[in-house]
Design brief:
Elements: E1 13-14, E2 23-31, E3 37-45, E4 49-58, E5 64-71, E6 82-87, E7 93-98, E8 113-116, E9 119-120, E10 123-124, H1 140-168, E11 171-177, H2 183-194, E12 200-206, H3 211-217, E13 222-227, H4 236-246, E14 253-257, E15 274-280, H5 287-290, H6 292-297, E16 300-304, H7 316-326, E17 331-334, H8 343-383
Parallel strand pairs: 6-8, 11-14, 11-15, 12-13, 12-14, 15-16, 16-17
Antiparallel strand pairs: 1-13, 2-3, 3-4, 4-5, 6-7, 9-10
Length: 384
């Protein structure tokens, strides 16, 4: 599950593979003698069973707060209270403690923080809590913990992918953008321009269909399609499984075309050397400020479809200013897949990355050989 948008798990399909996952959950509620309402959520999978429950506290002003607890086995609870944080129009935040008494056999004790979201000055902001997001019925603390767990597991897979790239001297790029930015068309021209200069392979990510992978294969490049189903981004585990089928060449470039989305892919390391964000001039100049995480995570921004600038009111200078306000180190290249503008600079940057990755691999091999030679010499000395 993605904690940014709540997209489901178990929907991924990689060409040539079949997976069957099963999960279900149910919720029920009961009312205690004092009127307190408890909702219990139970989740089950084919491999593990976890129990949890969510209960609601109603305050004098009629507001409700949902508290979610997960547990295994039977145990008692102590419930002393929780802290609420209020944000005001001037940006100040204050917290206060609420105590709750229950006349049942449950005794809960926790110090979770619950955020009140206010509508002030025609703005409702759900991104001010510790999690930076909102999910109905889930506390900020719970969301933060889920995100940490998911990203920690993803980072382990990403580290594994990175080792594979390093061992083969593969320069991997993660191409990210909004839908319709021209990623696939730009990628096709890139592959065709690099023919005879270096080998290129592609991992394609979409929610459904293999249209883009088929377009890539028409260039002669090897491509694997990943369909994410309800998922809004690729993750490192998906990419690792695609690599098993892709058969990367030593010293090649790998282009990972992510799902069209400027939100969730920003958080997921795939093991790539760089994220490359594509911003089309048919979009808005303010995209970097609206979706700062993506532009902050990227190393390069391709300002694409610049051949259309004479026909648009898009302010390219302002777009770059906004992007560098978020990420001062961001490299910007103006590109057009129609005219080829900017492709010399873009291709040169890719080739430099491949050369550097090959050099790192050569250094690693030389270091390993040196270590083996030293161990052999030490072994020979000990045998004397």
């Amino acid at each position: 599950m993605c904690t940014t948008c709540g997209c489901g798990a178990g929907e991924t399909r990689i060409e040539g593979e079949h997976d069957h996952d099963h999960a279900h959950q149910h919720e029920h509620e009961h009312v205690a003698a004092d009127g307190t309402v408890y909702r219990h959520v139970h989740a089950h999978t084919t491999h593990s069973h976890a129990q949890g429950h969510t209960h609601v506290h109603r305050h004098a002003d009629g507001s409700e707060h949902l508290h979610e607890h997960e547990h295994t086995g039977e145990h008692g609870h102590g419930h002393e209270g929780h802290v609420h944080a209020h944000r005001h129009a001037d940006g100040t935040v204050h917290s206060h403690q609420h105590g709750h008494g229950h006349g049942d056999l449950h005794d809960y004790d926790h110090g979770e923080t619950h955020e009140h979201v206010h509508a002030e000055a025609d703005l409702i902001d759900f991104g001010t809590g510790p999690a930076g997001a909102h999910a109905p019925g889930m506390t900020q603390a719970k969301m933060v913990q889920i995100e940490r767990d998911i990203l920690s597991k993803n980072n382990d897979y990403a580290a594994g992918n990175r080792v594979r790239f390093d061992e083969l001297g593969v320069f991997a790029l993660n191409l990210v953008s909004s839908p319709g930015s021209g990623k696939t068309t730009l990628l096709i021209r890139t592959i065709e321009s690099l023919k005879g200069r270096l080998p290129v392979a592609v991992v394609e990510g979409d929610q459904q269909t293999s249209f883009d992978a088929e377009r890539i294969r028409s260039t002669g490049a090897r491509a694997i399609q990943i369909n994410t189903g309800k998922g809004c981004h690729l993750d490192a585990h998906m990419v690792g499984r695609a690599l098993d089928q892709l058969g990367l060449e030593e010293g090649s470039a790998l282009m990972i075309e992510n799902v069209g989305n400027l939100v969730c892919p920003a958080a997921f390391d795939l093991g790539e050397a760089h994220k490359v964000v594509i911003l089309s001039v048919t979009e808005g100049e303010d995209k970097p400020l609206k979706y700062p995480d993506m532009f902050r995570a990227a190393s390069v921004m391709l300002l694409n479809k610049v051949d259309l600038l004479p026909h648009l009111t898009f302010n390219a200078k302002l777009a770059i200013e906004y992007a560098r306000r978020v990420n001062p180190e961001l490299k910007v290249i103006h590109t057009s897949s129609t005219t080829g503008e900017g492709f010399d600079e873009w291709l040169a940057w890719i080739e430099q990355g491949v050369v550097a990755q090959r050099a790192r691999r050569a250094d690693s091999i030389a270091a390993m050989k040196g270590r083996i030679a030293a161990l052999e010499a030490e072994l020979a000395r000990l045998k004397r």
